[in-house]
From TrEMBL, chains A, B, C, D, E, F, G, H, I, J:
<dbReference type="InterPro" id="IPR019887">
    <property type="entry name" value="Tscrpt_reg_AsnC/Lrp_C"/>
</dbReference>
<protein>
    <submittedName>
        <fullName>Transcriptional regulators</fullName>
    </submittedName>
</protein>
<dbReference type="InterPro" id="IPR011008">
    <property type="entry name" value="Dimeric_a/b-barrel"/>
</dbReference>
<feature type="domain" description="Transcription regulator AsnC/Lrp ligand binding">
    <location>
        <begin position="13"/>
        <end position="75"/>
    </location>
</feature>
<dbReference type="Pfam" id="PF01037">
    <property type="entry name" value="AsnC_trans_reg"/>
</dbReference>
Length: 77, 77, 77, 77, 77, 77, 77, 77, 77, 77
């Protein structure tokens, strides 16, 4: 299992809608609206890096209101 | 009660209108047009973080002329 | 209860030691070494913002190897 | 009377001490430790811009633990 | 009297037109096209900060070709 | 097997020495001195993310002349 | 033969399609979707710098979904 | 005679066309497509700073495909 | 005669001393402590670009407390 | 033959000395002190990329006063 944090810049007024859409995805363990330079932070899990890559590019990046994503892999040390 | 500063980048020519709209919100304690890298700085208050989150994403970010917001929570130490 | 993500830039060679020291703090729910622009990401919890502020400035920032911290509050919406 | 926000980057572990030292200055109306890209935000007041400039460069910038300051003038519109 | 430098990013091909429009404003003491990260730098004067704020947001930011402005107040020390 | 690109900022005059030291590590598939914002780019491989994390923080970051590292995981899609 | 890494920022949802289109080009030795500040990293080869320049500006930059490219030349030391 | 380097960010797929258009201008001594954070670098010459300013804002910035320019004056020491 | 604005980042507590030292140089027409991302802004004049270059690198950059300078040439259009 | 521009950030007061040292190297076709975000720009030539890499890392980066270098390869299209 691989884990990653995904930092999301959302369109104005959209952070809650984006967080809610994220929470509808099985791979998303948590998705919260936050303060600071990012609008939403999601913790996601996938069987391997390939599956993780697809979740980010095909599911998360296509949610309406998502403007930019930055992914940080959990190395587990 | 939680407090936060919200730094706002406004569209060209809109800072005063944005500040005025902000001052119409009950949660906004002060909203001023400033010099420097941001255009408007608001000091807001809400009963808890959830309410604060909603004020920012549903009220402030939807004001016409607001292009980007960055929120700094007051930790009170 | 308030939650926050703390993004940490660590000195070269120190991320694991920083993550380990973080995991020794009761307020730290998780602390992992990550890839990307930050070295370590911690999820912390405290009774209120004041307590949260003290954990960050008095406990986390004083761990040997911590060079910069950036805190993102979970707004819970 | 002129007002300004001063955003302060503090040395690791020093934000509380810096905020406390700031609150000891008569020109400082408020000084709080915050989350986000800055560590401390002060609201200051002075009779005119000259006095304001001196407070920042001769009083605030010489507080132990202050690494960088960025000042935003309140224009009052 | 308060003075400020206003750094202006202009649309491609527009710096001279922007500088010329600026020079038509009574509050503008000088406005020149420059090299470096900004396109035009204006030195402006106003009776007080409120008037200065209005010149920037209502007159300068509404000149055709002005994309971003950054204002630096002269503290006079 | 997981793969990652590690972008390295090296001290002045050290890129070749850093690249050479990297090529001495079994996990490093290639390490080259490059032009552009980074000085050296390494392609590394490890059995899993934990092993990858250790290579980066305990082996690569402790090479003399390595000032900063930024890791990009290959997702394989 | 000259080699270069090309870091690519892709439109939301497009990294996989961009990587796939890249892998269709004979000059592209590898093209992978990655985590971190870039979306796709390609390793390309060309007989000389002129040919390399044309591959980047006429083939890679015209792939649908490519928003920005940054090229790092392999110096081979 | 004054000399300046002009760093140009070009639209995707346009660097060669921009460089070619530049080479058609008498004031342009050289214009080449480059790797790194800029797309094209031109070396230009003009009788004085005023003429130089006009070449940049009226000729170079109006070439189709030029998105941003940054000018560095040669001081000749 | 050539004119330039020099933006100066000063060490903490030093802006006034730097501005004062600058005002002692014949080539400096004005030097003021300012708010915003820079600490001091000087307007300088020299017979030609060579002389201007020497004023910046040999006189201004060697003033105690000057950490970084960024020069913007006045093109006069 | 390969050509590259090398943008150099120099220590305060050192640009002229750095430019002079550069002009002493056979591979350096021109080296000038400039205004803007860099201090010195050199145009260098070498038989191939390997030789170019060595000139930058072993000769240019070891000149006293050179703090950072950024290299842009001329692609010749």
């Amino acid at each position: 299992m691989v884990q990653a944090y995904v930092f999301i810049q959302a369109a104005m007024g959209k952070p809650s809608a984006v967080a809610e859409a994220l929470r509808g995805l099985p791979e998303v363990k948590s998705a919260v609206v936050v303060t600071g330079p990012y609008d939403v932070i999601a913790l996601i899990e996938a069987p391997d890096l390939q599956a993780l890559g697809r979740v980010i590019t095909e599911k998360i990046q296509t949610i309406e209101g998502v403007e930019r994503t930055l992914t940080s892999l959990v190395t587990g040390i």
